[in-house]
Here is the input.
Amino acid sequence: MNKGKLKILLARYGLDGHDKGVISVIDACKNAGMEIVYIHFANPKEIVKSAIEEDVNLIGITSSLGQHLLVSSMLAEELNNNKVSIPVIMGGVIPNVDVPKLKERGVRGVFGPGSTPQEAVSFISQIAQKEEL
Ligand code: B12
Here is the structure.
């Protein structure tokens, strides 16, 4: 992993066209001095491939079409297959009842409707500090 400026991959899965939330997170991360790689219409294989190639510190997925459980399982499997442990966070329209299930799949933080982009930035900064990313 690269020390110094935090590099974050933000991805929109499949045909999910909801991008207002993730764009607000991109702006907040950039304002906090982070470097952003943004991909969309991506599947978990492509997301992990890009994350490795770009040597990012963290992956953030936006999901508002009810595919969050599927995406998180596939992503965990793909990270495992590639023997990498990049922290994953998620946001979008995610019901609270699914948050524990996402955590079981290794998702570190979940930021649904009502959360602020600043909360996501603080969480990323905390993980980076704790784990010396
Ligand atoms: C606007 C909207 C649209 C717009 C999207 C425009 C755009 N460019 O984004 C349009 C009209 C295109 C649209 C289309 C559709 N939509 Co729509 N849409 C919405 C709506 C009303 C608001 C979403 C939004 O922009 N919120 C504002 C942003 C700022 O909030 P947010 O996305 O939640 O993001 C915040 C957090 O979640 C977080 N966050 C988001 N992503 C990420 C990522 C990371 C890494 C982090 C850390 C945080 C984070 O950050 C933001 C902080 O403020 C929601 C209902 C709702 N109340 O949420 C339905 C909703 C998401 N849509 C829905 C549906 C069904 C559709 C359609 C399938 C409808 C249809 N039959 O055509 C299509 C799908 C099109 C497609 N290919 O995706 C459903 C999804 C149901 C589900 N989850 O099971 C919802 C929930 C409406 C509903 N109640 O049924 N939609």
